[in-house]
Amino acid sequence: MALIQIRGLRKTFGSVTAVAGITLDIESGEFITLLGPSGSGKTTVLRMIAGFENPDEGVITLGEEEITHLPPFDRDVNTVFQDYALFPHMTIQENVEYGLRTRKVAKAERARQALEAITSVKLAHVADRLPHQLSGGQRQRIALARALVLRPKVLLLDEPLGALDRQLREEMQIELKRIQREAGITFIFVTHDQEEAMRMSDRIVVFNEGRIEQVGTPEEVYERPATRFVAGFLGVSNILEGEASRAVGGSGASISIRPERIRIEPDSYKSSGEESALVGLLTEVAYLGANTIFIIEADAGARISVTKLNQELPSQNVRFATGDRVLAVWRKNHASEISV
Amino acid sequence: MSRWFSKNLIRIYAAIAILYILLPIFYTIAFSFNDADKRNIVWRGFTFEAWLNPCEPIGICESLGNSFKVGITSTIIATLLGTMIAFALGRYNFKGRSTTNLLIFLPMATPEVVLGASLLSMFININVGAGLVAVTIAHIMFCISFVVVTVKARVASLDPKLEEAARDLYANEWETFRRVTLPLVAPGIGAAALLAFALSFDDFIITNFNSGTVNTFPEYVWTASLRGVPPQANVIGTLMFVIALALVFAGQVIGKRKLAKKS
């Protein structure tokens, strides 16, 4: 049985529907990411799991226990907040001890455990300082230590890396993943950054307008996007519909094909049975350093973007120029049918 | 010369402004050491006479005691009630919230003379009568407004995520309030209490209408001024100034020591 079961969860704020009835299973020990643009409902779902919001409808179970309407302090989950929410009037040590203290752990024992947690995020030397004396990255680690010291079944992370600069962010992504693996705790991670989601997650839940668009491994959601939204939110995709879809042997349902999976051939090229091809006019060639992007206006009525990794010098790599009649060719199993 | 002047203009301005504020206080302190006759207006020579016998003028220390009684009682009650109102207004959305927000300002906006006169007729009508009880009730009334405004600003600047974090770390409502909310709002409550005490201690108009036959310290000074204010009044004024200064200083030292101890 899944560690967390969410059934038919709904939440409205006034006339705005934040979460429009979602169902999701989260397995023990997995790193699962709720991914979506702002306002898509992912944070509200997290806050309902934490107990900060009361759902209008639906049920959340943790292990054997239904926790839908329990207050936050009666749930075996802890949260790492977006802006850390460290207590400004307490030292780092006192911050990390806080949860142990409310759980009535003896003084010496909680001091020992807290110091161990602070050491595990490599910040033992700042234990006596106040939060405002720490850098953003350090505060982030302390927020993590403060939650992890309680050994919760589930750790909820609400865009915890949003405020960090790029380099620190990448370091923390690796660090978080390591901690999650070593502690074996279920992480529910909220982000709007698709690259971050791809890098860290065992599974990704893609949110849009209060609904779940797709659940799957990073590979599944990228390679087999279920909807047009997923295809567009995770990376870039060419969507073929109507005549263009039928021209490559489709049923007329929309087809998604990633730009890097398409190659360009002369219009005399004979494609094999495993390949799809669309003929069209090369209208644009844009050299971007690592890649070159080609735009083809297909005769069947689609604008196809092709990305080519520049493994050769561009001067030795000019086979096509704008105005050429070309074929866009891809392997059939690289394309996927999408709904809506 | 003119370059020096323009470079130091802000400093000169600041010095003049500070002098302007502090000069009356220097005057108060200096004349507490005056070897005064009936009227403490002309400097007649230095003496410790008034400092050695602060209670010599009849009624001065009794009136001071009354002021402290009224001040401390109304500060405690007004701070307690005002803080609760501030939390209600700052935290919760309820019917009539914006009306309450507006009404709380009314005692500040109403002319004190009018307020004082109407309070007297009210106290007589409800059989409380004039006296220290009536004065204390009146002081609580106008102090609450100032407490609410001061504490509400602090409550509003408090990050609600901090309380969520406390609850997330297994603290129930009471523990969250005691260990997170209250310590963070405490400086605002402390400032509000000091302000309430100062307002109560200083009040003359409302007090004078409602005190009946007893006197508070401001009333004593006012009455005495008709004959000549004794230098003992300056002694008490100086002491109040020194105590206030000491309180602020002690607050800063304690704050710094706490920090030093922690790091």
From TrEMBL, chain A:
SUPFAM superfamilies: MOP-like, P-loop containing nucleoside triphosphate hydrolases. Pfam families: ABC_tran (PF00005), TOBE_2 (PF08402). GO terms for cellular component: ATP-binding cassette (ABC) transporter complex. InterPro entries: AAA+_ATPase, ABC_SmlMolc_Importer, ABC_transporter-like_ATP-bd, ABC_transporter-like_CS, Mo/tungstate-bd_C_term_dom, P-loop_NTPase, Transp-assoc_OB_typ2. Keywords: ATP-binding, Nucleotide-binding, Transport. GO terms for molecular function: ATP binding; ATP hydrolysis activity; transmembrane transporter activity. Residues 4-234 form the ABC transporter domain. Gene3D superfamilies: 2.40.50.100, P-loop containing nucleotide triphosphate hydrolases. Signal peptide: none annotated. This is Unannotated protein.
TrEMBL record, chain B:
CDD domains: TM_PBP2. Keywords: Cell membrane, Membrane, Transmembrane, Transmembrane helix, Transport. The lineage of its organism: unclassified sequences, metagenomes, ecological metagenomes. It is a multi-pass membrane protein. The keyword ATP-binding does not apply. Belongs to the binding-protein-dependent transport system permease family. CysTW subfamily. Residues 64-251 form the ABC transmembrane type-1 domain. Its main location: membrane. This is Unannotated protein. InterPro entries: Bact_Polyamine_Transport, MetI-like, MetI-like_sf. Gene3D superfamilies: MetI-like. One of its GO terms (biological process) is transmembrane transport. Pfam families: BPD_transp_1.
